[in-house]
Design a protein that fits this description.
The protein has about 300 residues and is mostly helical. It has one domain. It contains 13 helices and no strands. Helix 8 runs antiparallel to helix 11. The longest helix is centred in the middle third of the chain and has 38 residues. The two termini are about 15 Å apart.
Length: about 300
């Protein structure tokens, strides 16, 4: 069997497992529920601020006018696309780590890895097929999320009387935003997969992925000291989190949102340029992918390397 046929067969098997895995559907359901709740809470904030439910007689001064304007953009088209993509790279990233750990770790927990490597012995093909299947699953989840966001935007904008300004350019930019979102999640799912392989279990993958995410977010807070000195800023921007933030911000800006309005701790001027962000994320992803491949090769499971 040649390499292409081997990857194709493994990919078909992995996609079948993911599409029929209850955990994948459960995680998607949890994410959609949390996203709907978040958008609904923003809707209620605007409605209470402007007295929508009382005909303008009773209003609440909850947030600044600039913040309310930003929330309105998130609740209408095309701003909702930026809001959905941010949610995908926020809560969705955590759930993607859990899904990845389940996909990689379950083969160890269920004892199916040896059988898979016997039928298609290349461990590189095995890892590649899992990664491609996972990316396809995340793409499907993104499409469902964006459609959900559009439905919410139409509903909330109608109640609040918000204008809808979506155009063909906004629709054409959606694949760019989705690709950025996948790039943002890539290093985290790779470290989760590597952790699952090293620990030979789902729990190890979840633990390794979430611990790294927590450490990375904490280290990203050092970005504020970058304002002190350009050299310190350059060193801090070699960490993963500032570069992740750059791509997430770019997705928001692309659809008319300004994340710094609602997140005062985020200074856009301190973030690295987009080209650097792509390079840094690619380097981290390559290191994590190599770690997963090397860990799998060093384990005595069966199958060629």
């Amino acid at each position: 069997m040649d390499a292409r046929a081997m990857v194709s067969n493994l990919l078909a098997a992995e996609w079948l497992k993911i599409s029929r895995r209850p955990m994948a559907l459960l995680l998607l359901g949890i994410f959609l529920f949390l996203t709907v709740v978040q958008q609904t809470l923003w809707f209620l904030v605007v409605a209470l601020q402007e007295g929508v439910f009382s005909g303008g007689n009773v209003t609440f001064n909850l947030l600044s006018p600039a913040a309310i304007e930003q929330i309105k953009r998130q609740l209408s088209l095309p701003g909702v696309f930026g809001a959905m993509l941010s949610a995908i790279n926020g809560t969705g990233g955590i759930l993607a780590i859990i899904l990845t750990a389940g996909i990689f770790g379950s083969d160890f927990n269920w004892g199916t890895l040896r059988i898979l490597l016997t039928r298609a012995p290349s461990r590189g093909a095995y890892l590649l097929a899992k990664l491609i299947a996972l990316q396809l699953a995340l793409l499907v989840a993104m499409v469902i999320t964006l459609l959900t966001g559009m439905l919410l935007a139409v509903t909330f904008a109608a109640v609040l009387g918000l204008p809808q300004a979506v155009g063909l350019l906004d629709i054409a930019l959606l694949p760019v935003g989705m690709l950025r979102a996948l790039v943002v999640m890539l290093p985290y799912i790779l470290i989760a997969g590597a952790s699952a392989i090293i620990g030979r279990s789902v729990i190890a993958g979840v633990g390794g992925g979430l611990i790294f995410l927590a450490f990375d977010v904490s280290a990203g807070s050092l970005n504020t000291i970058g304002a002190v000195d350009p050299l310190i800023r350059a060193l801090v921007n070699l960490l993963l989190q500032p570069n992740i933030n750059r791509l997430v911000v770019e997705n928001s800006l692309m659809f008319g949102l300004d994340p710094s309005v609602l997140t005062t701790a985020l200074d856009l001027s301190l973030l690295p340029p987009q080209w650097q962000a792509l390079i840094v994320i690619a380097v981290y992803s390559a290191l994590f992918a190599y770690s997963a491949y090397r860990a799998l090769n060093r384990q005595d499971i069966g199958g060629s390397q």
